[in-house]
Every structure is written in C-alpha cells, then in structure tokens.
Amino acid sequence: MYVLGIETSCDETGVAIYHSEKGLISDFLYSQVAMHSEYGGVVPELASRDHIRRVIPLIKQCLTHTNLSAPEIKGIAYTAGPGLMGALLVGATVARSLAWTWQVPAIAVHHMEGHLLAPMLEENPPAFPFVALLVSGGHTLLVRVDGIGRYQILGESLDDAAGEAFDKTAKMLGLGYPGGPKVSALAELGQPRFKFPRPMTDRPGLDFSFSGLKTFTLNTLQNSEKTAQDKADIAYAFQTATAETLAIKCRRALQQTGLKRLVIAGGVSANKQIRSALLTMTEKEQATLYFPRLKFCTDNGAMIAYAGCQRLLAGQHENLEIYAKPRWPIGELSAL
Ligand code: KG4
Ligand code: ZN
After folding, report:
1. Residue located nearest, by CA, to atom 22 of ligand 1
2. 61-91 tens-digit pLDDT
3. I want to staple 235 with a disulfide (CB 3.0 to 4.6 A). Which of 103, 186, 324, 334 is the partner?
C-alpha cells in the first residue's frame, strides 16, 4: 500500500511516499530556515503562508519522482499535532481534501510518534520494547515503548525542551536561528574551561529541567569578556552539560526498565556530541543505540508517511473532519 505523508507542523514542509512492503520510495523537504532566520526565530504566520506555497508542488514532485499516479496512493497521513495551529491546518486541509478527492482514507499522525518511529526507516530497526529519548524544539520525553501507540512516559522536561535550550543559548551567544546546529558548530572550537551543572541528576527520577542551565549560561557569559573564545568555551560547556545530563537520565531509564535498546530521535538527536555521549553510555550498559539518519532527525515527511501507514494497515483512519491539535499529549494515542 502506497501512503503519502505530509508534515507541516512548524518550519519545514515535508512530503514523502512510503510503501508498506517496499519501504520509503520518495521524500522531499522544503526548509523555511532562510526565511525565518531574518527574524531570529519562527514567525508562525509566515510559516503557514509558506506551507501553502510549497505543499502542493512538493506532492506533485513526489508523484513525478516515483512515477506514481494519484489512484495508486491508498492512504494519506498528515501531521495533526502538536505544532503551530496555522501550519498544521495547511497540511491537514490539503491531506483531507486530497483524501476526499481520491476517495482514500486519511490518518492524523502525532508528530512525536513520527519522530519516535523514524529509526524504523533504517536498515536495522529496533525491536519492541525499547526506551526512547525524544528531543525536539518543543519536547524532551523519555518513553517506554512497548509497541506502536503503547507509550509510557518515564520522564519529561519540567520547563524548557532540550532544543529550546539550544535555541535560547544560541540567541544569548548572538548566533541566531536555527540555534542547535549553530551552538554545535561553535562548540567544536571550544575548550573544556567552564563546568556547567547537570540539572536534576543529583536526585532520583527521570524528569529534566533546562531553564537553570540557561541562566547559568547567561551568567557565565555576562561574567566573561565575551570574546570569540569565551563564547566558544561557553557553547562547549553548555553542550557537554546537556549531553551528559541526557546520558545520565537515559542510563537510569535503561536500568529502571531493564531494557537494552535505546532510541534517540527529534531535532536534537542530530547533535554529534549527544549521539557520542549516548553511544559511550549504551556500550557501557551493554545496550544498543538506535537513531535515524541525520535528515530524519529533524522534521520530515518520511516519518509521518511511515507512522500513518502502520495505523492505516491496522484499520485506523479519520472521519471527514479536518483534524488539527496544537496540544496533543502522546499518551493519548491508541495502541495498535
Ligand atoms: O524535531 P525538530 O526538527 O522540530 C521540532 O519538532 O521541534 O527539532 C528542532 C530542534 C530545534 O530546537 C533545533 O535547534 C534542534 O532541534 N536541533 C539541534 C541540532 N539540529 C537541530 N540541536 C542540537 N544540535 C543539533 N545539531
Ligand atoms: Zn519535530
């Protein structure tokens, strides 16, 4: 079964076609980074307008690239939340309308379920059950995953998400948007000079907090000469503290659940130092680390097509309403 996936929850228009037996056939992405960088962050209204401009041409491109005609598409998956309301509505409306026109089912996909299942697109996908660390711009979640839709939240951020902390640190350091990759590039020039706290690691539990780290970063910057080397050393200290904190919590989650498989996904999982800290930790724990290829760490249509395809195969689909949910706890999803 060919499934078209549409992702428009934030600042990337992603479209892909996934086949239930053949796997991923095609995926295209248009990133709005250049447009938003002028404003130092995502401008929701501009994001929605740009999704409107890009989504149909990307769908056409996907169909042309695969030589598929519309009647061969047997289902349409779209990101219904969480995300920016206007942006979500673009994908939801286009998906629902195409499904109506082509007389095929449409399925509303949870964006974080898409991220969580992205490693399934790789050659050696993880078997269930596993622990997943989901780290994006809006979420930091540790989840026990027993199957699709069988999610038990083990821990989450009590304040800023990990990606948000990267974005705010970038702003403080004058690096602008998008923050994560910029902090990461600057950190490569940094020296181990400052020691930043590893928040909430000195007490039991699997929750996170990144706002204290943000304040610590700001204070360190203000007390420095603000030279280029100071900034690089601060970026390095921030990234190291974040990577170690995530590794400590993931180790705890593996020990607590007794599981030996860890998945990392979401935009922040593209970070090299974080991947390497988690790799070292999982090797010590005799566990295996799974992550998506770099381009599927950040937002994309492929993960939505995959997640939607699994739910459609299980017989799920939406009724005729246009379904968009800016806030949507992942624990509310139904199990397959
Ligand atoms: O998953 P994603 O593309 O969108 C959301 O669902 O939020 O994640 C975007 C987040 C942003 O906060 C961005 O700064 C962060 O992921 N990010 C990174 C890196 N690449 C993207 N953070 C750290 N290092 C990176 N290389
Ligand atoms: Zn995302």
Report:
1. 180
2. 999 999 999 999 999 999 999 999 999 999 9
3. 186
